[in-house]
Specification:
Helix content: 25-40%
Distance between the termini: 22 Å
Strand content: under 5%
GO molecular function: FAD binding; oxidoreductase activity
Number of strands: 0
Radius of gyration: 12 Å
Pfam families: FAD_binding_3 (PF01494)
Protein name: FAD-binding domain-containing protein
InterPro entries: FAD-bd, FAD/NAD-bd_sf
Largest sheet: none
Structural class: mainly alpha
Keywords: FAD, Flavoprotein, Oxidoreductase
Length: about 55
């Protein structure tokens, strides 16, 4: 899966269900600056369900 927010959530869900994953980042260096400064309530609920928040 990709290393973006959606890919990491998918990876976490798969791992918690016993499915091995490989995270692949296309970029070789981290991006500079802020991204995703806020979370919508639906994302917060998903993160809570997965135990991230």
């Amino acid at each position: 899966v990709g290393a973006g927010p959606s890919g990491l959530v998918a990876a976490l869900a798969l791992l918690r269900n016993g499915i091995p994953v490989r995270i692949i980042a296309k970029e070789t260096e981290p991006r500079i600056g802020e991204r995703g400064a806020g979370l919508v309530p639906r994302s917060q609920g998903l993160f809570h369900l997965l135990g991230v928040l």
